[in-house]
Amino acid sequence: MNKVKAFLLDKNIDISKFSYKNTAIIIENDKNKYVLKQKKRDDKKELYDYLLSRNFSFFLYPENDFKDDYEVYQYITEIKTLREEKAASLINIISELHIRTTSYKEYSLDEIKEIYEEKNNRINYLFQYYDELEEVFSKEIYPAPFQLLLLNNVSKIYNTLNYSKILVEKWYKNVVNDKRRRIVFLHNHLSLDHFIDSSDPKIINFDYSKYDSPIYDFVNFYKSHFYELDMTMLFNKYQHRYRFTDNERLLFFIEIIIPSKINFSDNVCDNTLKINNLINYIDITRKFILEEEKKEQEEDYSKFNKQ
Known about the structure:
Blueprint: H1 2-10, E1 17-21, E2 24-28, E3 33-38, H2 44-53, E4 70-74, H3 83-100, E5 103-106, H4 109-138, H5 145-177, E6 180-186, E7 195-196, E8 202-203, E9 210-212, H6 215-225, H7 231-241, H8 246-257, H9 268-306
Antiparallel strand pairs: 1-2, 2-3, 3-4, 5-6, 6-9, 7-8
Helix pairs in contact: 3-7, 4-5, 5-8, 5-9, 6-8
């Protein structure tokens, strides 16, 4: 904290009180309220100037020099809204970011193979991992609750991994025949925690931003909030403004459907909760994808009948 105080003193920023919010420090004095963060990357000025050049201003510009070790931002008080309203507002803004920063390039064959192999390797690793867990847990004379929960639901994990393989093969076949892809500027850490909903809404924390396929912002958002928000409604809202191509859609489904690896602890309750969360995630995501695929088929059928 001494280093922070020295920095603020050098910037002539008085401190009446301070508090912590995640990795940020909230600084208050009689006149202003600021957010102080450790600088994580050196290209922030170029990043923000690029966004401004694309007429995208839904972010906070720092109050201090970019050469400093810290970033100082004006504190913005959020309006009180339902999380569903806040999520809808964020989806509108992130779709705008993607619209304004879209460019096109082609996959090289090596890039396609790299993605294909990475997905297959991850799926094969998870098959082996859960197969070994099933074998170990099934040998227990008195299995713990979390072990029983996994044994009773492991077939869902295997079915999901098999389904993931089908999607990967379909994506690979399609993208080899159509290498053109869209690239956008991604926030790359998208969640409601990184969005300030106010009269002048702002996305915050661009520390992990990069250029890549537009799917990845919604992938991060989905994994952060699948359990609490209507993802079908929010996905449709995003698609209405920035529709995924067929190949993007497949890759998006692949990214969200491949289940995660559970890292167990010594706590039985904690382990049981982890498995329960994984099974819930699989159930919700399978339903989400199947509904989206059904909707896509109905749209294609409708278009066909109009011809």
